[in-house]
Design a protein that fits this description.
The chain is mainly α. Helix content is about 60%, strand content about 10%. A two-stranded antiparallel ribbon has the order 1-2.
Length: about 160
């Protein structure tokens, strides 16, 4: 029996472990970003920032990649645009569409966040060993893909 039935489990389940990792990484990332001058962005902006590309990306693609509703992503883009991290520009491939492109400040934030994430991953690689950490990431990617596929299947 699981946690939903009231039975106590001795080991945390996948959801609890995934949440612990996500929230802990997110706290460290955004605290370090704030220390480095990016103190005006909130963790919820990560749904856009994590998938932003230097050449730009459509809002619909950001919504798909982040798993957020288009309206939520649109609101996050509005916030980031007001803060000077992104701008909407016409998509050269389709003039009816817009690309969300990072500004110079947005590119700097992306580079800074990537360096922070590399440091976090290097710490875990050192702790677990290169082979174990690579195996962990491979397994986690597979679990994420399988879970995503299962969630997409009709009931």
């Amino acid at each position: 029996m699981g946690a939903l039935t009231g039975d106590r489990q001795t080991e945390p389940d996948l959801g609890v472990l995934a949440a612990r990792v996500l929230f802990s990484v997110q706290r460290e990332l955004f605290a370090t970003l704030a220390e480095q001058g990016f103190d005006d962005i909130l963790p919820r902006s990560g749904a856009v920032l994590a998938h932003l590309r230097p050449e730009g990306i459509r809002a619909s693609e950001l919504a798909r990649l982040s798993g957020q509703h288009k309206q939520v992503v649109g609101s996050l883009i509005d916030d980031l645009e007001r803060l000077g991290y992104v701008e909407r520009v016409p998509d050269p491939a389709d003039r009816r569409a817009k690309l969300v492109c990072p500004t110079d400040r947005g590119l700097l934030q992306m580079e800074t966040a990537a360096a922070i994430m590399r440091a976090i991953e290097e710490r875990h690689t050192k702790s677990l060993g290169e082979e174990s950490y690579a195996a962990f990431k491979k397994a986690l990617r597979q679990v994420a893909q399988n879970q995503s596929a299962a969630a997409q299947r009709p009931s």
